[in-house]
Amino acid sequence: MIKSIENFIEAVRADSTSWNPKEPKWFRGEPRSLTPLLPTLYREGLAAFENPLLQMFRSRASGYHDVVPDVERTDQWLFLARHAGLPTRLLDWTEGALIGLHFALQEKEKEPIVWMLNPLELNELAGVSQSAGQMREFPLTWVDHAGANPAFENIGGAWVLDQRGVELPVAVYPHYIHARLRAQRSCFTVHGKRKEGLDTLVPDRILKSYAIDPDCRESMLDELRTLGITDSVAFPDLDGLAKELKARFSISTTPDGRTYTSSRNSG
Questions:
Q1: 260 dihedral zone (left: phi>0; alpha: psi -120 to 50; beta)
Q2: Which residue has the higher pLDDT, 133 or 4?
Q3: Percent of the chain at pLDDT exceeding 90
Q4: What pLDDT sits at residue 247?
Q5: For the residues of 237-266, what is the DSSP string, one character each?
Q6: CA angle 90-95-98, nearest 5°?
Q7: For residues 7 and 11, what is the distance between their CA atoms, to the nearest angstrom?
Q8: Which of 242, 249, 254 is CA-nearest to residue 215?
Q9: Domain boundaries, the chain
């Protein structure tokens, strides 16, 4: 079980030694769940309402946000909807290991866990084609390729009642149409026809997990703040700033039961 930032970095490094160091690693932090790596849309039994949710979000979003995608850019609408909290077939990931750890440590009553994914290996399993001898790349989310682009197919399935899509999830980079996407170095996996957790769909050689000791939550959060990973960094708005300040001036309990009030990293 991971007890410190150093433990976490060492484990990530050890588990990814066989991966291409020039290719990205993706991370997802969350509370341990009975349905890990399953999009909220399926966890909450809302799959039958996927299309109405998206259509209503698209029709009303311009009244709540200054900049919205073109009405036909269904990929961008899907990214924006997920980042606004709408249940979708997307799973949120980040390119930053410490950002993923930050999210894992947020819910105090649950055991934190961080997942590490080799996204290009996932795409190869899902049928994303690559030209021989070329560096592996991520598929474009807005190009059809006559039905041969699994990313486009899985995104399309969200808008046409699952009438298109491949079996496995596909890893994609989003357009940064919201400041939080940029700040969190966001990326997504898009589920296809199989509505199972990613952990059951792919081999463990491309997907690793790290259980975090809940007793080390506060000390690790303090370390992350020292390293510049804070709420206002992950959420660059007033909500993120307020949450960060609340955490900074908070009452904490040490392992031996003592309590103290601290102004964390106020310098």
A1: beta
A2: 4
A3: 71
A4: 78
A5: SHHHHHHHHHHHEEEEE-TTS-EEEEETT-
A6: 115
A7: 6
A8: 254
A9: 5-229
